[in-house]
Design goal:
Length: about 300
């Protein structure tokens, strides 16, 4: 009997020890690649806050441009990153003629990247393409007339300066192509070379009537400028979308489920406004949480 009790006690101790040593399931985690721009920082903050609600821990790594983000994802050192369809097509895939149509632009890169183990999740409604900006007060009263066709007519009348960056001014597919499609009388339009920040400032102070910037420019929003619509679709589409490694997508399908809710609520104007607030030194995490609070279908933050 004594031997039985000792044996039973030993067995219970072993079972207890085994239970004590049973590992707790680790919180799923991923590595997020982040580009070098304020917009990429904002997208990263939105992603981290959204995935936190799904119980997914995110480690961010600063990588720079599209080419490096793609390369590190293909190497397996990055699980998720945000890209732009036009940039991925031209720089990442070394292809010519990126589409101006948003749907075509997205589909062509998604199909090409499947074979590379990169999955483009559903895109946002944000198109970070180029745009020509004017002061909001200079726009036509009728919203439907706030187009490049209207602006081309204004510029062709003469006396209104246009600010362009040097590369766009010189490229055959840049200003020359734009002027040809919209019948801009180039001889009537004085040009001034300026980078995006300078162009925004010069339009704001009246030096230039219009200036070239990114459609999601936070600086332009802060300066009270507004883009005109590219009604003939000359500028290639730069649709903003999350890209995930195929292995990560299969391991954590909830990433797509959460980010699908985020992208549904993020348009060009939304991203521009977020960029504008970030340009003003606001905390990206606080901005992200405030934005996500208005997005339908997301679970509450862990602290809620």
């Amino acid at each position: 009997m004594r031997r039985f009790l000792c044996t039973a006690a030993t067995a219970l101790l072993l079972v207890a020890a085994g239970c004590a040593e049973e590992p707790v399931a680790a919180e799923p985690s991923i590595t997020l690649g982040v580009g070098s721009t304020d917009e990429q920082r904002m997208l990263a903050a939105l992603t981290i806050a959204a995935l936190d609600r799904a119980g997914i821990a995110v480690t961010r790594t600063e990588l720079g441009d599209t080419v490096r983000l793609r390369r590190e994802a293909q190497r397996g050192t990055v699980d998720l990153y945000w890209d732009y369809t036009g940039a991925a097509w031209a720089l990442g895939l070394n292809q010519q003629g990126p589409h101006a149509d948003p749907t075509e632009s997205f589909e062509q890169v998604r199909e090409e990247d499947v074979r590379r183990g990169l999955v483009w999740l559903d895109p946002t409604r944000a198109n970070a393409t180029l745009a020509l900006f004017v002061r909001a007060a200079d726009l036509p009263a009728e919203p439907g007339q706030r187009t490049m066709t209207w602006l081309a007519g204004e510029l062709s009348r003469g006396g209104k300066r246009l600010c362009l960056d040097p590369d766009f001014r010189r490229r055959p597919a840049g200003y020359v192509a734009l002027a040809e499609v919209y019948s801009i009388q180039r001889a009537s339009v004085p040009l001034e070379e300026a980078d995006e920040s300078e162009a925004v400032a010069k339009v704001a102070d009246g030096t230039c009537f219009a200036g070239l910037a990114t459609a999601t420019s936070g600086e332009a929003v802060r300066a009270g400028l507004a883009p005109v619509a590219d009604d003939q679709r000359v500028f290639p589409a730069f649709i903003v979308a999350p890209v995930v490694r195929e292995e990560t997508h299969e391991r954590l399908p909830q990433i797509a489920e959460i980010l699908d809710r985020l992208v549904d609520g993020l348009g060009t104007d939304d991203l521009a406004r977020l960029n504008a607030q970030l340009t003003g030194d606001a905390d990206p995490t606080a901005l992200a949480e405030a934005f996500l609070a208005e997005v339908e279908g997301l679970p509450p933050p862990p602290s809620a």
